[in-house]
Design a protein that fits this description.
The chain is mainly alpha-helical. About 65% of the residues lie in helices and about 0% in strands.
């Protein structure tokens, strides 16, 4: 009886580890790696654009004049 209980516990531990713990560990590692890569790419792009400030010129927002017609559709 004792060996049967030990075998059942070993089987449950095996199933838990290989069906839950290892896949969660691998997935979290892959997600962390993706975030690190994205962060490094953003830093590289930020460094590249900071050296060349003329690349992206801010355009002033044009405000609509009073009396301009704005098209819209009525939703019923």
């Amino acid at each position: 009886m004792k060996y049967l209980l030990f075998a059942l516990l070993a089987y449950l531990a095996y199933q838990f580890i290989f069906n839950l713990v290892i896949p969660v560990y691998r997935t979290s590692r892959k997600i962390k790696k993706g975030f690190r890569e994205m962060h490094s790419r953003m830093q590289q792009e930020s460094a590249a654009t900071s050296h060349h400030p003329g690349n992206f010129e801010a355009k002033p927002a044009s405000k609509p004049k009073a009396g301009d017609y704005i098209e819209f559709e009525e939703i019923k």
